[in-house]
UniProtKB/TrEMBL annotation, chains A, B:
UniProt KW ATP-binding keyword: no
Keywords attached to this entry: Hydrolase, Signal
MF term (GO), any: xylan 1,4-beta-xylosidase activity
The protein's name in its UniProt record: Glycoside hydrolase family 3 C-terminal domain-containing protein
Record family assignment: Belongs to the glycosyl hydrolase 3 family.
Length: 672, 672
């Protein structure tokens, strides 16, 4: 079909017109069969690209999504997604030589996850861009743009915004849970980033969530799909169900009587593609007049429009030339390392960091030499990777002593098991400085079914460090050596004791295959830390409302009434920056950023807006930029503030911008 | 007590004389408490040193015992054990600064395991030195000597021969199993290496097994302990029970009525130390007149003689100076790499190996990038390690493509799981040569409780490759590229299809932390393979008698009537060797070995004896030596044959020696 002058939509229409009802229904399942008489190969729609091509063998593994968000580097995230889609497309080009694709071999990525990480206990929170809708919207937009490419005709890879909507735990209840949410929270928090990404990036697809929202199952919700997504938001793409979510409508939510009714509810509200088995009943649903054939046809046209737009049927699609040489190529590995550097957040530093390479160091903790904490979840398999320990070993010039120190979670070591504490104390005694590598791993915070966190099904019962690690921290602290606390997790943990006992605290989100190298780059000052927290670090479980309460009251930096240990957007550097000539006029903040320290460093400038008269919200992130400056260098910057955020404030308000801690009043009251 | 002129035995006698009965009884448990009034610190006797200090944190991890046996390098094994005991002692010197030792912190090693690997299905077989009593005796002797050191006064570390006796599965039944064995098999196979090691190395300790032998529980067996070990063999050391084995006597074997009787049975037959809890009942047993206090005293004297001989109470013990700088020192890592090189056995080579570094290689298989297959069981935690994949990546100059290819064991991949086969086929298509890294891992063949091999509790139901891997082999073979089959396992597997389909087959026993480097050294010809099989590689499960049958009939190279795929002691090289001037006179074989090839290489010369008139046994290994020669170099060798093996042959027999495949008749019929 090379050289076809018709649009993808026209080609889809013409092709689908030749299909029987049965053929059309079959194409609405994620594992769509071939239609040989029409030249349609079998295609499995399910692929994953959260932070690298996932579950499809060797691939560059970038930092987990929460770490990408912590970079506050929109361009870097777009570049990351572009690298990922190159690898996915290259793999697809190879896999299709088998004449069809299997699962995780196609070019329709069910990424990114732009749910709001409203509660640190949610196991899948690290798949998201954090707690703020604007940051999520910016990162999601960059990621979608990077995945989908900028060819005027073809999409490189389809991006899918998920999980639509209001999805954030509990994992154990997700198939039957009804998230109850008010209109303000719905639009200002839970749906905000979906709309933003749709407006700014034109994603190919949206995935419906498992849960109900205010009584309606997300994958069959007239309100969410028909009224808001296709209506208010003007979404142009296709909707896919989460896997098994449509059978959940009758089996778990008990909103319908059987699978035919569930399928009809979903399809009639615009869910064109089914991951799972419910659409086996589509023909029955049509026969029962629950769905019209026209509705089926419209769905299948949407799906084939996407496949045509992906160039699946064309010889001259430019992405056909991508060879697997791009997979884990040096450029991608270097980008992964750079993003990992930017993703780590220096939370405290009394001057201990950076370290001198000559120091003898004790690397202690259950996460020091664990490959899994590099990878997060929804990950690929790196052919090479550098654990935190190995990164330090490769960079250090003094002696490196390693001691695991404790079991990751088990406090009581079995009588006949290894007792690793004493080795850790000895290692600390003999070293100049201790680097504690602690925290969680992706088995402790994950997805229902993936994770083995006891009754919590992937969620966490607490934000406290496991007691085994608390004990290790206390015992090693008694040795009296300077300590760096490296916390590896995908979420906020209670780091109060680490903050008290350690000279430096560094947050490492699951950092990808190059994580150990990036950590060493920061510890030894090769690179300045520049990451910022995309989530609030609370002091205790007592700071958290009930997990199942979806009200945003007292959640995230916007609404939390307490004092966090480390606030949203917090992040230190080894150099220092000053803002000069700060101005807030109309819809933008401008100024000059100067590197007043002695090292080159990256620096994000998040701009928050607040209305001192409005007690309902502390402030709102409304713009951000990021610069990298040499010592002494100064550069002007301009942050365009987000129109949709500005719109949330009363036009007459005495609007104030918080720019890196400095307050600046808006000069002209005009909103636009 | 520095400068004490008394012998260790005298000091033990004098110290124990000051103890109460209760104090003495408590000292017979492995977790012996302190006796502050006598200056005796608490001491935990349990430590492990199978192929490196185990379960005690960072340590050099050498090849698993079965791999050490495959080196056929007696001096190398002694050097390995010396390195291990240096590390153990150095760690002890640190741990004792806490005023006591915990488990895995002492200097009494419950190693080596010199059981006979009579059946490849036994899960713990890889802890042993293989199927041959003589090879086991030589390796065990070297290992004990290396552990115990050669100080005239002090032992560096106590070695413990285990498991005495006739212990080799099934793991699931080990606490209640009664191994029924005839006298010839008992003495010529199961006990032979124990006696040999006792005669030649003077081990400090022997550990009793879990099982019964001909009805008697091993840890309480008059026949095994009193009559044979202390009587016939003249053993001078102490006996320790396997962990929980004494409670098994009443609870599982039902030979006694209660723990007091079990403890009495064990102590009265010479088992001085109890791993487990049975000796809590010792005071009761004495009160019931089941044991005399004199017997208790004699046991405790043996134990304290050992502790004095280890220098635990002396300031001037030369081993006190060993600092933890020896742990994972460069010399030990180099030795581990060298032993790993020697432990790998080239089973087939049609000229494919060694590889040119410029070739593009596909490294395929579930064992390619698995740390656990480096480590085996009873292992330490290496601070650095090189997986097979990484070793190849570091050595190759062409492109290395990695594909896992399949799950280690699961044939049916879940519908929503990764489907890794196609990636492997693609990698093969694009490469010049395929290196398949297949086999088992230490979770699939291990100990009861350790392993998760379903119903088999660590044993294997079959010697076939898992069907997932069989399928991968067949599919990759269809690509038609030259293939090297790297089989990682601790035991014989059925490699018939690998032998048919692949140009080269290399057996890699769990090779230790440097395993990947050693593999690359061999694959790329940096070093010639020189390992030899310490076990017969059978063709099929049909070659094996029932697992629970302890008769040696039709087992091992000595008695097997069939045709193995690769026989015991088989092992190829990249160079070639010729034997010249071969003579067999009296008790020795002499000759000249010439390296007739073009590469330096090591070469073991095992000497088997056979009596053509004796149909009951095929042949018996009776001597061995090992040389390393440059190309063209020749060196004389002399192999002293083992007196105890010669004694097994009829004096008048027409004795023939098989030397590396060449037969030579004994010139003088005199046996001695």
């Amino acid at each position: 079909m090379t050289g076809d002058k018709r649009t993808a939509r026209e080609r889809a229409h013409d092709l689908v017109a030749q299909m029987t009802l049965a053929e059309k229904c079959a194409q609405m399942k994620y594992d769509a069969p071939a239609i040989p008489r029409l030249g349609v190969p079998a295609y499995n729609w399910w692929n994953e690209a959260l932070h690298g091509v996932a579950r499809s063998g060797a691939a560059t593994v970038f930092p987990q999504a929460i770490g990408l968000a912590a970079t506050f580097d929109v361009d870097g995230v777009k570049g990351t997604a572009a690298a990922i889609s190159d690898e996915m497309r290259a793999k697809y080009n190879q896999y299709r030589t088998f004449g069809e694709t299997q699962i995780y071999q196609g070019i329709t990525a069910w990424s990114p996850n732009i749910n709001i990480f409203r509660d640190p206990r949610w196991g899948r929170g690290h798949e998201t861009y954090g707690e703020d809708p604007y940051l999520t919207g910016r990162m999601g937009t960059a990621f979608v743009q990077g995945l989908q490419g900028d060819d005027p005709v073809y999409r490189k890879v389809d991006a899918t915004l998920k999980h639509y909507a209001v999805h954030s735990g509990p994992e154990r209840l997700r198939h039957s849970f009804d998230a109850k949410v008010g209109e303000e929270d719905l639009f200002e928090t839970y749906l905000w980033a979906f709309r933003y990404c749709i407006d700014h990036a034109g994603p190919s697809a949206v995935m419906g969530a498992y849960n109900r929202v205010n009584g309606e199952p997300a994958c069959g919700s007239k309100t969410l799909l028909q009224d808001i997504l296709y209506g208010v938001f003007g979404f142009q793409g296709y909707v896919v169900s989460d896997c098994g979510a449509i059978c959940d409508i009758n089996r778990e939510h008990h909103v319908t009587e059987n699978e035919a009714e569930s399928a009809a509810l979903a399809v009639n509200n615009g869910c064109a593609l089914n991951c799972g088995d419910a659409y086996k009943w589509l023909k029955t649903a049509v026969a029962l007049d629950l769905i019209s054939e026209e509705t089926i046809t419209a769905c299948v046209e949407r799906l084939f429009e996407a496949r045509f737009r992906l160039g699946m049927f064309d010889e001259d699609c430019p992405y056909n030339d991508l060879s697997d040489d791009v997979v884990e190529c040096p450029e991608h590995l270097a980008l992964s390392r750079k993003m990992a550097q930017e993703s780590m957040v220096l939370l405290k530093n009394d001057g201990l960091l950076p370290l001198d390479r000559q120091l003898n160091v004790a690397v202690i903790g259950p996460n020091a030499d664990d490959k899994s904490v590099l990878l997060g979840n929804y990950n690929g398999t790196p052919s090479q990777y550098t654990t935190l320990l190995r990164g330090i070993q490769e960079a250090a010039q003094g002696k490196v002593r390693y001691a695991r120190g404790c079991h990751l979670t088990q406090d009581q070591v079995g009588r006949w098991e290894e007792h690793p504490l004493r080795e850790a104390v000895l290692a600390a005694q003999k070293s100049d400085v201790v680097i504690l590598c602690m925290g969680l791993n992706p088995q402790m915070e994950g997805e229902e079914g993936d994770a083995y966190n006891g009754d919590m099904s992937g969620d966490k019962a607490t934000i406290d460090l496991p007691s085994s690690q608390q004990k290790l921290l206390e015992e090693v602290a008694k040795v009296g050596k300077p300590m760096v606390f490296v916390n590896v997790s995908g979420s906020c943990l209670n780091l109060c004791r680490a903050d008290e006992l350690c000279g430096a605290v560094l947050q490492v989100f699951y950092p990808g295959a190059e994580g150990g190298k990036a950590l060493a780059d920061l510890l030894y000052g090769e690179v300045c830390p520049s990451g910022r927290l995309p989530v609030t670090f609370y002091r205790s479980d007592r700071d958290l409302p009930p997990f199942t309460d979806y009200s945003m009251k007292d959640r995230t930096y916007k609404y939390f009434q307490g004092e966090p240990l480390y606030p949203f957007a917090h992040g230190l550097s080894y150099t220092s920056f000053a803002l000069e000539d700060l101005r807030f006029e109309g819809g933008a903040v401008e100024g000059v950023l100067r590197n007043t320290g002695s090292r080159r460093g990256g620096h994000a400038i998040p701009v928050f807006l607040k209305d001192p008269g409005d007690r309902s919200v502390n402030c709102r992130l409304a713009g951000l930029t990021r610069l990298e400056l040499d010592p002494g260098e100064a550069a002007p910057f301009r942050v365009e503030l987000c129109r949709e955020i500005l719109d949330l404030f009363d036009d007459s308000a005495a609007l104030t911008a918080l720019v890196d801690g400095e307050e600046v009043q808006r000069r002209s009251a005009g909103k636009k």
